[in-house]
Design a protein that fits this description.
- This protein has 159 residues and is mainly beta.
- The chain has one helix at 153-157; strands at residues 24-26, 35-43, 52-57, 60-65, 71-75, 80-84, 93-99, 103-107, 125-127, 139-147.
- The protein has one domain (27-137, 146-157): Sandwich (Jelly Rolls).
- The strands form two sheets. A six-stranded antiparallel beta sheet has the order 1-9-3-4-5-6, with no helix packed on it. It has a four-stranded antiparallel beta sheet with strand order 8-7-2-10, with no helix packed on it.
- The radius of gyration is 15 Å and the shape is globular.
């Protein structure tokens, strides 16, 4: 899918060239007490290809593809909140996950809240993959925002 934003360097030669995926790993910037993650995503998958991380931390996910259907979820290694909704196949869709009092995920509206076990894992924030499971996102992840508070549905809608 052609785009109008920069990617990593792509060498041009007479032979076919393959480049590595654009993957960013940030430092330990996630708080367990409460937080929120937001990204604008699109995917080139037209079918379900299982679990793929958008924003993750170890085996936990702030946002990931819901493997069984079109949707996103947030997972704290014990509980999961899922929101099926907008199709992000070849189109950009805003998604968000929040945790603190409870967990919720937003994809064209709020999902059903789930209990929060008190930890979003440990280690670096992974954008576009999981360092623990290797579940790489196959598409774009842009305009990533991380907050140290559990945003309300109204605040998520204003992003």
């Amino acid at each position: 899918m052609p785009s109008t934003y920069p990617t990593s360097y792509i060498a041009t030669t007479a032979a076919a060239v393959t480049r590595n995926a654009d993957v960013l790993i940030a430092g330990d910037i996630i708080t367990d007490a409460a937080g929120s993650g937001y990204a604008e995503i699109s995917s080139i998958w037209s079918i379900s290809n299982g679990q793929a991380f958008i924003l993750g931390r170890g085996v936990n996910s702030i946002l990931q593809r819901n493997g069984g259907s079109i949707g996103v979820e947030i997972y704290d290694s014990t509980n999961v909140a899922v929101k099926d909704g907008s199709n992000y196949y070849n189109s950009v869709v805003p998604v968000a996950g929040t945790w603190g009092v409870a967990m919720n995920v937003y994809n064209a509206g709020a999902g059903t809240p789930a209990a929060y076990d008190g930890t979003m894992g440990s280690g670096s924030l992974n954008i576009g993959n999981s360092s623990a499971s290797g579940g790489q996102w196959n598409g774009t992840v842009r305009n990533v925002k991380i907050f140290n508070s559990e945003l309300t549905a109204t605040e998520v809608a204003d992003l």
